[in-house]
Design a protein that fits this description.
This protein has 118 residues and is mostly helical. It contains five helices and no strands. The protein has two domains: 41 residues, no CATH class; 55 residues, no CATH class. The radius of gyration is 22 Å and the shape is elongated.
Length: 118
């Protein structure tokens, strides 16, 4: 693969920016031209991206649902599992908050002698 020096990279970056439409340029300027990298490698597809346990989203969901084998789970339940697994793996703060609240609430229920959410 060919290596470029900083001057060449900046010239190519400017050329890409200049060829963009006004809306695209506006979005780049909003984020900051200096931090924009049009040469960034694409992220891994979701189906092969792994978390810190070296599991894919599919692996995590499958393992979790296996623990629920005896319980009847709805389609909506499964969709929720997939949704939170994807969001947590992608570092979504909203779902991180939901996750941490769920742990805290579960601990609170146990501490006060409640067995389940019902």
């Amino acid at each position: 693969m060919e290596k470029f020096n900083d001057t060449e990279i900046e010239a190519k970056k400017k050329a890409i920016f200049d060829m963009m439409g006004k809306r695209g340029q506006k979005n780049i300027l909003k984020m900051g031209y200096e931090v924009w990298n049009p040469f960034e490698e694409p992220k891994d597809p979701l189906d092969i991206r792994k978390d810190i346990t070296k599991r894919t989203i599919q692996d995590l969901v499958h393992e979790f649902l296996q623990t629920r084998r005896e319980e009847k789970t709805s389609v909506s339940f499964g969709e929720g599992v997939v949704e939170i697994a994807m969001a947590l793996m992608n570092g979504n703060d909203k779902y991180r908050g939901m996750f941490e609240f769920s742990i805290w609430y579960s601990d609170l229920l146990k501490k006060e002698g409640h067995d389940n959410l019902s």
